[in-house]
Amino acid sequence: MELISKKLFDKPQRKIKIMQFGEGNFLRAFVEWIIQDLNDKGAISSDVVLVQPMPFGRVKELGDQDGLYTLRLEGIDGGKKVKNSQVINVVGDCLNPFTDYDKFLAYGESEDLEIIISNTTEAGIAVDPTDTDFTVCPKSYPGKLLALLKRRYDKFKGAKDKGLAIIPCELIDNNGDELYRCLTELAKINKMDKKFIEWMQTANHFTSTLVDRIVPGYPRNEIEDIQKETGYIDNNVVKGEIFHLWVLKKEAHVQKVLPADSTGLNVIFADDIKPYKQRKVKILNGSHTAMVPVAYLCGIDTVGEAVNDEVIGKFVREFVFEEVNPTIDLPQDQMTAFANSVIERYQNPFIRHELMSIALNSTTKFKTRLLPTLLDYVRIKGELPKRLLFAYSALVTFHKGKRGEEDIKLADDPAYLAKWEELWTNFNGDYDKLAKDVLGWTEAWDMDMNTIHPEITATVAKYLKAMNTKGMRATVECFVAGCNGSCKE
């Protein structure tokens, strides 16, 4: 069999009007799919250049396939099992700015470029004050984008009509506003010209967004069958669910250049995305993050296995319905319907969603996905959400780096991993101290979590002791049975 390429599939020639920071599974199964639909239905005529935001990534492998790859969408639609497969052909170029910085900057001079899209994980939109040398590729995403915008400003002499539609998809609150803030701060750190900063702020069009589609990624366990079915080799197959939702805050220019709501997809330009964001992040992403360390340390590897496990499934459902839903200010019938739909999506029989793929950057994910629920629950109820704190304690135990005799391949910010290692290396059997130290890790949580509630430190210490003496399976069984993780031996 041959590698998928332009020899096997027609690839229309379109102008590259979209630059995308991030070439990972999610954007290729979500944004590229939407762009493909818009192109196929004549709403736009645009190709995408994929920019690898980290020194490691997939752009070379995608380039070897002429930017072509196979997207498989599987799930339940209208009560029926649905399986769709299509070749995505909208990737017009792939580049690694760390090795081809000049080519990257040259795109800033393009008359055709209109749109910037990104998904660099929750940790990606942040100011790195050491990004001060723009003669080489900046380390951070804001640094790269700032360098590109500066090149564009210089090329077009500050022309107001050369600003770009900037659409971040990172899962943080007000991601458009936050990216705007980071760019402004970094420009000031670098003492950039005030006229450039003004152009960056006013000529460009930032919008906040919410994205929702479960994307397990590369179907390694099915790839041989897929190759037999398609008749070609594709090293970048990506698998996702049928369900999708993209909510963008209304911004006239963004809606003009990317009319993503015009072809019948579940795309919404809304005056306020906050209710959609809160519901999705707290329920879907929050339950993912809560589920991972508990289920994985019980020997479970996938989301489907976790929710279908009698004990873990009960834990996840009770976490969502009893601890998350009460913190969201939407009608409870809507919350119940959405929560039920999330559980159904987790049970999608076609998707093997690896827990370890969700575990990436789990320290930051706790802060963005679960800490707001913890704070809201305590404020509303005046008591602790015990399931959430159980999941937090499991996260601490997960970062011990062991599942039985097996090493866990932890993937997080190196500084966070170093701190986790320090916490566990210095652990001497005093669970009260461990709980106090990890809850007081202000660099990770932006607060001392010991102050949230008088009983939080003792509660986390109790769960940590049970998990690390009895094991996760015995502890969670005890917890779900109603003994709160402190069963007697």
Chain-wise SSE layout:
Elements lengths: L15 E6 L3 H5 L1 H10 L6 E5 L7 H6 L4 E9 L2 E9 L2 E5 L5 H7 L7 E4 L22 H15 L9 E4 L6 H15 L4 H10 L1 E2 L2 E4 L10 H8 L7 E4 L3 E5 L2 H6 L9 E4 L3 H23 L6 H6 L1 H15 L7 H15 L8 H4 L3 H20 L4 H13 L3 E2 L2 E2 L6 H12 L5 H9 L2 H4 L10 H15 L1 H12 L6
Parallel strand pairs: 1-2, 1-6, 2-5, 3-10, 6-7, 7-8, 11-12
Antiparallel strand pairs: 3-4, 9-11, 13-14
- Structural class designation: alpha/beta
- Identify the strand order in the major beta sheet: 5-2-1-6-7-8
Mass-distribution shape: globular
First and last CA, distance: 58 Å
Biggest sheet details: 6 strands, parallel
Percent in helix? 40-55%
**Tally of individual helices:** 21
Q: Over all CA atoms, what is the radius of gyration?
A: 23 Å
Q: What is the residue-averaged pLDDT?
A: 95
β-strand amount: 5-15%
Low-pLDDT stretches: none
DSSP strand count: 14
Structure description:
The protein contains 21 helices and 14 strands. With 489 residues, it is α/β, with parallel strands linked by helices. A six-stranded parallel sheet has the order 5-2-1-6-7-8. Helix 5 packs across helix 6.
Summarize the structure.
This protein has 489 residues and is α/β, with parallel strands linked by helices.
List its salient traits.
489 residues; alpha/beta; 6-stranded parallel β-sheet; 3-stranded mixed β-sheet; 14 strands; globular
